[in-house]
Design brief:
Among the domains are: about 170 residues, Endonuclease - Pi-scei, Chain A, domain 1, CATH 2.170.16; about 80 residues, no CATH class; about 180 residues, 2-Layer Sandwich (Nucleotidyltransferase, domain 5). About 25% of the residues lie in helices and about 25% in strands. It has 19 helices and 33 strands.
Length: about 650
């Protein structure tokens, strides 16, 4: 399996922001020719022979571990770079280099951040190879490779520069890339010991800290099956960390590296699940598919994003566009609010966030272009440099003594608010940013094009504002009406979407309670035999549910969804007591209505849902056709809930039966 990020993924994982969010495809690749010589502590080794766990050198000459030696692949575009010492390197167009331009030569001792600022792909180098006066435009700072008395290579950083004099396109050859655990993500390659960039994905970012036993990472998915399913997060991690870390499934899914560093895989199904992480310290906090999590989950877990290891805590998230999610509002500065497409000029730009009550007394998210501007907007006057420096000393003393640092001074209040500010960035991408990924799996883009128009715009084009129009999910022309109930239905469920309000002067148009009788035939076809729709008080709703259960009979399952939280659990417990001997099934609702509707919508569009002729047909079809733009969605919820829990659909619930 190839886990090789494309340029925008590199941009995402290189970000210095406290919170970085990435929305895009998951394929990519950047490689060197298989025959490239790689200096290692024990001598020169060709790239094709490098294995997971081998040792290489970073740009400082320090020994680093190969986290993953990826499978060889054939790139679509390849180049041969020629350097002024006569050496060459054959690489793909997407490969990254740390280069400087001639005006940078005066700064020979650069920091890690300055290296990152000069990272360029081979394609970028090819496009800007020469200056306006025809001179080489890119130089690389080298290490020298010397031998110690035991014939082992000893890289020495000597500050020698090498110019890139030519960049010619060549016929693609088999190439390979490495993922190493160097902090800068660089390793030395070729006889001239050129620092070159490695590649990695979300799991690889976690593995970068493998030598820090007092640091840890957790990757969250919303549901446990997204971690455990075939090809899911666990399987990917097992392949990536094979031979590097020990996998343990109990008491939780963890990969434990020799240093003691741990990467945990977990899920947060309900908002209350975050309580189990109270008191935790998560140095690297990762959310896979952030839009599936609630805002309260995210911000609570951000309070656990801390570490005493000396390594800066970070949060990394991936997501797909979802106009109805809280994430869409969270990143709206990076999105054109008219077109719904990301503003490319803002990709990777950092904004500063403080979640607190503003000067108008409103609690929420406060944003600005810098920490100082943000605090000024919130009414904090900036103390003098000397007062702020004194506050930092007092703050450190308070912490060391286990005391609260809040001493009532303005400069301490300013310092504490400043420390609470988080830097945030968003890097958008689509599959079109990823030509190698498309080449590796040509069917993937075809699968995206086969989606309904809304999902195609979201997942293929990366649009954050697109919303379904009437008929996008359950078009009325795909309705199938049959004259009688088929005799071969194998299982029935009465699926309820409950409300508890009658029309009144204060609430003239409340939601409906809906109960749909839904069955499955041996060929997989869904049959909707009856739909009840009414608006009654809570007590009357309970009476109607029980009366309907008696009429349907004990062979019909009763489905009542459980809302997240304590109130939802109390409601389903109460209904189970009320319905006595009837079989009641339930599951917690963790997805939004649109996501819940998608499986049933796919069946509807393929005419696999049949309606038994009845007076309820007209209103039922009309409401479905208007989803997700109409006033009502109660019948949609009853249908999609019932379809999701019928046997053969692998539901996640426990059946409670009293006899």
């Amino acid at each position: 399996m190839r886990l090789m990020p494309q340029p925008k993924q590199e941009k995402f994982l290189r970000s210095s922001a406290d919170i970085a969010i990435f929305g895009g495809s998951a394929f990519g690749g950047k490689g060197l020719r298989n025959q490239t010589l790689i200096p290692t502590p024990s001598g020169w080794v060709i790239l094709a022979d490098i294995q997971d766990g081998d040792k290489v050198f970073d740009e400082n000459g320090d020994v680093r571990t190969v986290i993953k030696a990826h499978d060889p692949y054939m790139p679509e575009v390849a180049y041969r770079l020629t350097f002024d010492d006569g050496s060459t390197a054959e690489i793909c167009s997407e490969h990254y280099w740390v280069t400087f331009q001639p005006q940078d030569l005066s700064n020979k001792f650069c920091t890690h951040n300055e290296w990152i600022q000069h990272t360029r792909s081979t394609q970028e180098i090819a496009d800007t190879l020469l200056t306006d006066d025809g001179k080489p435009n890119h130089v690389i700072w080298l290490c020298d490779t010397r031998y110690n008395p035991y014939n082992h290579i000893l890289p020495v950083r000597i500050g020698r520069w090498i110019y890139i004099t030519a960049c010619e396109r060549i016929e693609p050859v088999m190439m390979r890339c490495l993922t190493v655990d160097s902090p800068s993500r660089l390793y030395l390659a070729g006889p001239s010991a050129i620092p070159t960039h490695n590649t990695f994905a979300l799991l690889m970012e976690c593995s970068r800290y493998s030598e820090h036993g007092n640091f840890g990472a957790v990757i969250f998915r919303r549901e446990s099956k997204q971690v455990d399913n075939e090809g899911g997060l666990r399987d990917t991690a097992l392949q990536l960390y094979a031979g590097l870390a020990e996998y343990r499934s109990q008491p939780q899914k963890q990969f434990i590296f020799p240093s003691g560093y741990r990467v945990s895989l977990a899920h947060l199904n309900q908002d209350t699940d975050v309580v189990s992480w109270h008191g935790s310290q998560i140095g690297l906090l990762c959310f896979d598919e952030l839009t599936t999590f609630t805002e309260s989950m995210f911000f609570y877990m951000m309070s656990r994003n801390r570490s005493t290891s000396g390594i800066k805590p970070q949060c990394r998230c991936t997501c797909n566009p979802d106009s109805d999610s809280w994430v869409a509002k969270f990143i709206d500065w990076w999105i054109d609010q008219e077109s719904g497409f990301p503003i490319q000029e803002r990709s990777g730009s950092i904004r500063y966030l403080l979640r607190r009550t503003n000067s108008d007394g409103v609690f929420g998210l406060n944003w600005a272009s810098s920490r100082d501007v943000l605090l000024s907007d919130l009414g904090f006057g900036k103390p003098s440099e000397s007062a702020l420096a004194d506050a930092k000393i007092r703050h450190q003393r308070f912490i060391e003594n286990g005391q609260s640092p809040m001493d009532g001074t303005e400069e301490m209040a300013y310092l504490l608010e400043r420390q609470a500010i988080k830097s945030v960035t968003f890097i958008p991408a689509t599959i079109y940013d990823n030509p190698i990924g498309m080449g590796a799996d040509p069917s993937y883009i075809a699968n995206l094009k086969a989606q309904n128009p809304v999902d195609r715009a979201r997942l293929l084009d990366g649009n954050w504002k697109v919303r379904p129009a009437a008929g996008s999910y359950f078009p009325d022309h795909r309705a199938v009406i049959i004259d009688e109930i088929p005799k071969d239905v194998t299982v029935w469920v009465r699926s309820w979407d409950l409300a508890a309000t009658e029309p009144s002067e204060s609430e003239q148009d409340p939601d409906y309670t809906v109960g749909a009788l839904i069955g499955r035939r041996p060929n997989g076809t869904i049959v909707v035999a009856d739909v009840m729709r009414f608006r009654k008080s809570a007590n009357m709703v309970r009476e109607m549910v029980k009366a309907t259960a008696i009429r349907d009979g004990k062979n019909v399952l009763i489905y009542i969804p459980t809302d997240p939280g304590q109130a939802g659990r109390y409601q389903i417990s109460s209904y189970r007591e009320w319905l006595g001997d009837f079989t009641v099934i339930s599951k917690v609702i963790t997805k939004n209505k649109v996501a819940m509707a998608e499986p049933a919508a796919a069946m509807w569009q393929n005419k696999l849902i049949h309606l038994v002729r009845g007076e309820w047909n007209v209103q039922f079809i009309k409401e479905l056709d208007l989803f997700d733009t109409g006033r009502y969605d109660d019948q949609v919820d009853a249908l999609t809930g019932g379809v999701s829990v019928l046997p053969q659909s692998a539901p996640e619930y426990n059946i409670y039966t009293r006899k």
